[in-house]
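User: Run a structure prediction on this.
Assistant: Running it now.
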Amino acid sequence: MPNSSMSYARAVALSLAVAAASASAAQAQTERAAASAVQSEKLSPVDQQFLQDAGQAGATEIAASKLALTHASDRQVREFAQRMIVDHTKLARNLDVLAKRHGITAPPAADSAVIGSLQNLQGAEFDKAYIEKVAVGGHQKAVELFRKESESGNDTAMKAAASKALPVISHHYEMAQQLAKAKAAS
């Protein structure tokens, strides 16, 4: 009799272990399906284009600003560039999180035409081109891009991110305009 009660206890324990493992596997499968559903949730063409354009604008800003640290002759231009690297790196991280939620994992590339046009310039010539093409021109386009997404984007998280970033980018644009005026006056 002791052996049969021991066998019964083992059988019950084994059954409970199998049931727990099955429940755990079912829960894991449910979680994977939910994660997959979020990733496969398609962005509208408007939101996809925003992610692409915003990502490229940010990558261009960062790459051009890194060039400015070594190519610019003006201290104010280098300080502006350093600030752009910090701020746009934070913004890029936020956009990357949103992109990954929708299964987009390829990092955006910088605008090679803009970077190429700056690469061989030095000193005052670089300063002028950087201010015109990146600081003022780039931020003017970025303000419009983020404003448009914040007003007419379809994905609520994307719209919220654009709305949150818009004041920062608008401030960058104002700073760029001030920098351009200061350099034109000197």
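The chain has a mean pLDDT of 85.
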